[in-house]
Specification:
Elements lengths: L1 E6 L8 H5 L4 E5 L4 E6 L2 E7 L5 H11 L3 E5 L11 H21 L4 E5 L6 H13 L5 E5 L13 H10 L2 E5 L14 H20 L2 H4 L4 E4 L6 H14 L17 E4 L5 H11 L4 E2 L15 H5 L4 H16 L12
Helix pairs in contact: 4-5, 6-8
GO molecular function, one term: hydrolase activity
Pfam families: Amidohydro_2
Organism: Mycobacterium paraseoulense
Length: 335
């Protein structure tokens, strides 16, 4: 089984606040196996060494039957609103750490880098280096760039570079819509992230990004969030409002242009996703190693009782295809 949605970061990060000013992510050790992520000195999340220790990850992977994890940065480190030179440095530190993890365990880990999207030209250059030099499969990006949608014309160089390099783009929600209204009850994580991913996917479609770059490989987190559930309404608005999109085809016709992780937590919802987009467009994702992660990996998929060909595609074939991996690269740790 290949898990395309996991996160990690180096155990130590430099102090960027003293150098660049602003509210930077900082990792503060609270014990031999624990740390807090602070942003601008304020607590963001407590984490364990599963975020940075490959042996701890491998133990959990073996217990869950996961042959390979795709490790990507923790989204709070995107830092799109901060100094672009500093973010480029922060990105390189993380990218090199992930690349080292992959080099040390090539059959167990693949990786996605991060780039300073607020500087699209630099982001494009770094995306090329991530694939060519660091040998990672692509990049993880946020669902917006400091409030700018992903169809912002300034981002064209980045998307062009990713298409040229056949780099996978993993779109993860960040800076969610309506965060001030969703601060209670965990709604920013439940409703906010789902709506944010839907807005990002719709922007890529309606803004013509997928038309201009037909070779793009885009993976949506959390089963696409609310995107599929809202498609009929998106279609209707597109039909009724001339200004609703720059594409000549119905928005719902693009559903098969995206890939989706399986992280919907419910067997029926996952079966519906697979039925709508096809098993070849869905891959296992868990959000490891965080508290809300699906454990064991693939729990909803196996509970759905789907035929073996579908399960095989979701557990491995889709992932190896979009990552550009041969089957013999993946370690042999069956469920």
């Amino acid at each position: 089984m290949v898990d395309v949605h996991t996160h990690g970061l180096p155990r130590y990060l430099p102090n960027f606040t003293n150098r660049f000013g602003g509210s930077w992510p900082e990792l503060v050790q609270t014990g031999s196996c624990t740390a807090d992520i602070l942003v601008g000195g304020r607590h963001f999340r407590s984490i364990t060494d599963h975020c940075w220790d490959p042996q701890r990850r491998l133990e959990d992977m073996d217990a869950d039957g996961v042959a390979m994890q795709v490790v990507s940065p923790i989204p709070i480190t995107f830092s799109y609103g901060l100094n672009h030179e500093g973010v480029a440095t922060l990105s390189r530190i993380q990218n090199e750490w992930i690349a080292g993890l992959v080099r040390d365990h090539p059959s167990r880990f693949a990786g996605l880098g991060t780039v300073p999207l607020q500087d699209p030209a630099r982001a494009a250059e770094m995306a090329v280096a991530i694939v060519r030099d660091l040998k990672l499969a692509g990049v993880e990006i946020g669902s917006n760039v400091g409030g700018r949608s992903l169809d912002d014309p300034a981002l064209e160089p980045f998307f062009a570079a990713c298409a040229e390099e056949s780099a996978l783009i993993f779109v993860h929600p960040c800076n969610v819509l309506g965060a001030d209204r969703l601060s209670k009850h965990g709604l920013a994580h439940s409703i906010g992230m789902g709506a944010e991913t839907a807005a990002a996917a719709a922007s890529l479609v309606l803004g013509g990004v997928l038309d201009r770059h037909p070779g793009l490989k885009i993976l949506l987190a959390h089963g696409g969030g609310a995107f599929l559930g809202l498609l009929s309404r998106i279609d209707r608005i597109w039909e009724c409002l001339p200004q609703a999109g720059d594409t000549s085809d119905r928005p719902s016709s693009y559903v098969g242009r995206f890939y989706y992780d399986s992280l919907v937590f419910d067997p029926d919802a996952l079966a519906a996703l697979i039925a709508r987009v096809g098993a070849e467009r869905v891959a296992i994702g868990t959000d490891y190693p965080f508290m809300i992660a699906e454990r064991p990996a693939g729990a909803a998929l196996f509970a759905a009782g789907l035929i073996e060909a579908v399960t095989t595609s979701v557990t491995s074939t889709t992932a190896t295809t979009i990552l550009g991996l041969s089957q013999d690269r993946v370690g042999s740790h069956p469920r």
